[in-house]
Amino acid sequence: MTADADGLRGVIPAIPTPFTAEGAEVDEAALRLVTRHVVEGGVHGIMTTGGTGEFPHLSREERRRVTAAVVAEAAGAVPIYAGTAACSTMEAIALAEDAAAAGADAAILTPPYYFGIPEESLYGHFADLARAAVLPVVVYNNPLYTGNNLSPALIAELMGLDGIIGLKQSNDDLGQLVEALRLSEGSGRSLLTGIDSQLYAALCVGARGIFSTAAAIVPAQIVRLFELVEAGDHAGALAQHRLLQPLNRFLEYDPGYVSPTKEALTMMGLDCGPVRRPLPDFPAADRPALRAALGALGAL
Fold first, then answer.
1. Global confidence as pTM
2. What is the CA radius of gyration of the chain?
């Protein structure tokens, strides 16, 4: 399957990486069940080894194995976007090569993290990746976690590069996405949000979809929101947004979004095992509210 800007649309879940007890190993059988769960939910793609997939806690070989397992289980039903974020351009290219060997359709990656990087070097990082032409590239802006924000003007420059097909925008300032959409108009690239609570608003201002953590849990309900907007049923879409928000809030604030995702899936009978340390477990005191949010969505 070929990934391109036209095909980069809709609901693309960022799926977790299930582990065996104590986080010892990747649980490939559980990973295949999660893959089947989202495909059956009607999603338009799958993102592996992103933040929800705990990529900082995976070895290079584990990242390749995770993507290969998802590719095999999805069996061409949807494009697979492999997370290939790295601190160095050299490593990011190597990870893209691994993803391509595993059968991924595109690479999605944040700017480098830890060091503060000037804008011209951030541009160069993505330009080098695009020029390497290993896989089509999706730029993933997540300044809260990387410390390196991509401004709307820089995003627009990047959207003009051959080999870059679009953007996942996980900046909590919706105005930044609005401006990036304005400046990138005419580029032919697809700009998507990466924040679940922004989905309805983002679609209304021209985003073409979402890379979604919530869609790893309740894929059909996120797809329904997308389809309601596509059909012009804004009253229905707003109602669906409000129904989803009690779940969304667990995926955007403390204690982070990984343990709530795994906790929710376990409640639904898809045991993904623990998070890897030092990530915190989901607070026991919050389980009733999470269960209630899932129950209201018909997920239990």
1. 0.97
2. 18
pLDDT at position 252 is 87
Backbone angles phi, psi at 88, to 5 degrees: -115, 150
Whether residue 68 lies inside any domain: the answer is: yes
pLDDT tens, position by position, 73-116? 999 999 999 999 999 999 999 999 999 999 999 999 999 999 99
pLDDT score for 3: 86
The answer to the question of residue 288 being in a domain is: no
* Host domain of residue 20: 10-220
Q: What are the structure tokens assigned to 17, written together?
A: 């990486």
Let me know if residue 272 belongs to a domain. no
Whose CA is closest to 107, among 153, 49, 152, 156?
A: 49
Q: Which of 98, 145, 133, 108 is nearest to 14 (CA)?
A: 108
Q: How far apart are CA 61 and CA 69, in angstroms?
A: 12
pLDDT-above-70 percentage for the chain: 98
For the annotated catalytic residues, the residue numbers are 140, 168
**Number of independent structural domains in the chain:** 1
Residue 133 lies in a domain: yes
End-to-end CA distance of the chain: 33
| pLDDT under 70: residue ranges of the chain | 1-2, 253-255
CATH number of the domain enclosing 164? 3.20.20.70
Q: Please name the residue that has the structure tokens 């999706």.
A: 138
Judged by DSSP in three states, 197 sits in helix
